[in-house]
Amino acid sequence: MRFYNTLHWKQHACPPDCLACEQACIHRTGADSPDSAIKMVHHPGEDLHGLMACLQCSEPSCQEICPTGAIHKDKEDGVVRILQAKCIGCGMCTMACPHGGIHISSGQAVAYKCDTCNGQPQCVEACPSRVLEFFSAERISRHLQEEDFLVPGTRACSGCPAELGLRHTLRTIGRGAVYFGAPGCMTTLMTGLGDRAGSRLPYFSCLFTNVPSTMTGVYRYYKKIGKEAKLVAFVGDGCTADIGFQALSGAAERGENYLFICYDNEGYMNTGNQRSGTTPLHAWTNTSPVGGAYRGKEKNNKYLPLIMAFHGIPYVATASIANLEDYVQKLKKAMEVKDGLAYIHLLVPCPTGWKAPLDSGIELSRLAVETNYFPLWEYERGQFRFTRDVANPKPASDYIRLIGKFSHLQDTEIQDLQESINDRVSLLQSLVKSGNNKNY
Amino acid sequence: MAKKHLIIGCGTAALSAAKKIRSISREDKIKLVTAEECLPYSPAALPYLLSGRLQEDNLWAADDHLLQAWGCNLVQGKEVVGINTDRKKVVYQDGGEESYDTLLIASGSQPVRPLIKGLDDVALASFHNITDWRELAKKLVGNKEIAIYGGGMVALEIAAALLERGFMVRIIVRSRIARGYFAEEVGTFIESVLRLQGAEIHAGSEIDEVRIIEDGTEIVLSTGPALHTDLLIACTGVEPRIAFLQNTGIAINHGILVDKHMSTNLTAIYAAGDAVEACNFFSGRPDINAITPSAIQQGRIAGANMAGEKDEDKGWIPMNLFRFFGHTFFCIGLLPWPSCEVITLKDDLSPIYKELVFQENRLVGARFVDVDIDPGIIRYLIEERVDIGGWQEQLATHPQEVGRSLMLRSERN
To answer: A90, A113, A398: which to substitute to probe chain B, counting the most B Cβ within 10 Å?
Structure first.
């Protein structure tokens, strides 16, 4: 796999009124254009500030449309360059680019764009807040080992987010572990069919009640034969929060060393959508029906990641499939833990069970995070921290109204969920503020 | 099994299709056949040869090296005069034949020759291909006076190129300048820019008759005056180059009729670019849209389908961008209609003009004169049907900033 260098921008840390990057670009060495190729974007009156620069597309629209063939993507460094002798300044490239990456210079009536200053981008050097970096794109996707360990074909539903989560987990951790699962949606992928396994990785298919116990036994066996084995569970919410919780809690308290990932689709989905301990308040499921007597689930869900953090284990994190880089970083941290349990709670919407369009998995995951319904945080040896800013969330209704299991909700019930979100975030904020409590 | 794809034409749509086929299949054979004796080029670049901005060496969109890299075989100087669809062969003018597994008709367009009395006697220039340019270039020496018949994009580009070189230019237009693209006041502004550069403009005039006189051509206008000129260039529109498709059974209207897969009514025969009538993005109704972006889009879809992938065309959107004498004009999408939601902002003291047309919270058309915007982002907002969400006024007052912001949000950045 070939990786080019890429500009990387940390939006959350970029001060909105600093234009050092633009200034550096305007005055870049050898520049003959009065305009900057990197542009800060401000929406007047709105709290958005963005950054725009050429994305050095792999199939550049500008290259495609240029009538004289003046634009080419350099195979060596991946930079999309304009051959000035062929540029007629017609502006068609500016009509083609949807990213605002190429412009016609007002002065000289030729096209210009970011060319990464031939590998030494001056905007990066000039950035006082160090939010601009230039590094190999390999860093962003290196967790994806070449191999996809699952066998071809899938028995998951069309658009299943859990499958995406599983694939990324396996491609990140790969052969470094032995895997464990319990009956559930992802079992259909890992266990396989008939006498064929579903993946090329060692996998134990356990029962609902005994995943952590099985792992405990396997760990001790490997230790006995002289191997420090890395064990990873990928298990649904029903098993983690309800039926298998006591074994998990025990393993956490004993300080067992493995990684336990709960993929939370807020119900027992593989058996046709029954409520679990993580099904949220007011949600419809087949065992929390909506009708004359009941209006969905009557109680709110167990906030499992926090419960696990209060076991005082070395590492806990929440993750979302719409924030894969964040998830991968957390997986790597979790894998480094050697002295106790690491737990990751991965939200995976279930469009089939939640009654949402089958292709809405990513959108729902994004909104879950952006509304703070599912804030992204981690707990590392007594210290809580958010890995994504929780300020200025979208209203809960933005998330709720896309999901059929909430379609019966009245305004007061939506308000209940909004308050629950607000309270949980508030609680997390106070935990973050409380500093390092590793001895509690 | 490797297929043989034959492409009539080597212009924008043809190359787009060829590249797409190659990106899907390594084994398939791709042959492009052109009636012209030169490398592929875009007619859109020709006016820049006229102005001297571009040298002929730099005109070519692809050279032998690139064609080889794409695995394409280009045959020059062979004109297709018929197609034997039963035997899957095209027939060349020299009598030769060429077989195909799939065929793409990307024969482009040709200038519409206006009906004017006396025209056959007079040397009428058109400006659509490289031969036109070379012929014209020979004549453009000395203090020539040139008359241009037409007021659309091509007419304006040629006029601007000639004015830049210092020639005397007269524009004769039947209605008004830029009628198909902009409101009248913008057309009037364009006229004033051209006049400032020394052009003469006769709007609302038709040419009734042309006559050869001692030192050039006499043009008799419907509005009265007779003009003298050294050269007359007709820019009265283009039409699909499809005469050779008669008796082939391929369904044509004004252009070749194609479905969402750029397929004609006959199996394994596709068409793309200036020669086709494909569906409009907004209405779904078929029509010709002879612009570069459409040729590329349609070529890509045709190529994909020829290589076995069933991609569908989303429909064409009219758009044009032209720049001359320090001014920029950009128009895209639907023109306002009586009951539409439109915001028009203009400045009495400057040429700045902004017009945005909305429908159900989506941008469907826009026109900008001398405004800093990102045309591609405006196009993105229209094509992706981005919800403008209450920011219509702001998009009109700050089209660049708000356009960018909407794009970034839509791309989840």
So the answer is: A90
Q: Does B380 touch chain A (CB under 8 A)?
A: yes
Instruction: Give the residue-averaged pLDDT of B333-355.
Output: 90
Query: Do B341 and B358 form a contact (C-beta atoms < 8 A)?
Result: yes
- What pLDDT sits at residue B122? 67
Q: Which residues, 6 or more positions from B298, have their beta carbon under 8 angstroms from its beta carbon?
A: B13, B16, B258, B262, B272, B273, B276, B278, B313, B316
Of A64, A88, A94, the CB nearest to B45: A88
Cα separation, A374 vs A417, whole angstroms: 12
A48 with B408: Cβ contact below 8 A: yes
Nearest CA in chain B to A47: B405
Segment B354-389, tens digit of pLDDT: 999 999 999 999 999 999 999 999 999 999 999 998
Highest mean pLDDT among A33-47, B224-238, B300-314: B300-314
Taking CA–CA distances from B380, the nearest residue in chain A reads A98
Q: Nearest residue of B to residue A99 by CA position?
A: B377
Contact between chains at A92 and B293 (C-beta distance less than 8 A): yes
The yes/no answer to whether this complex scores an ipTM above 0.90 is yes
pLDDT the model gives residue B15: 97
Query: What whole-number distance in Å separates Cα of residue B357 and Cα of residue B366?
Result: 6
| pLDDT tens for each residue of A63-102 | 999 999 999 999 999 999 999 999 999 999 999 999 999 9
Domains of chain A: 5-139 (3.30.70.20), 147-433 (3.40.50.970)
Query: Which among A90, A95, A366 is the nearest to B376, CB-wise?
Result: A95
What is the average pLDDT score of chain B?
93
Q: What pLDDT does A438 receive? A: 77
Low-confidence ranges of chain A (pLDDT < 70): 1, 30-33, 145-146
DSSP letter assigned to residue B37? S
Q: Is the pLDDT score of B231 beyond 70? A: yes
Q: Does B268 touch chain A (CB under 8 A)?
A: no
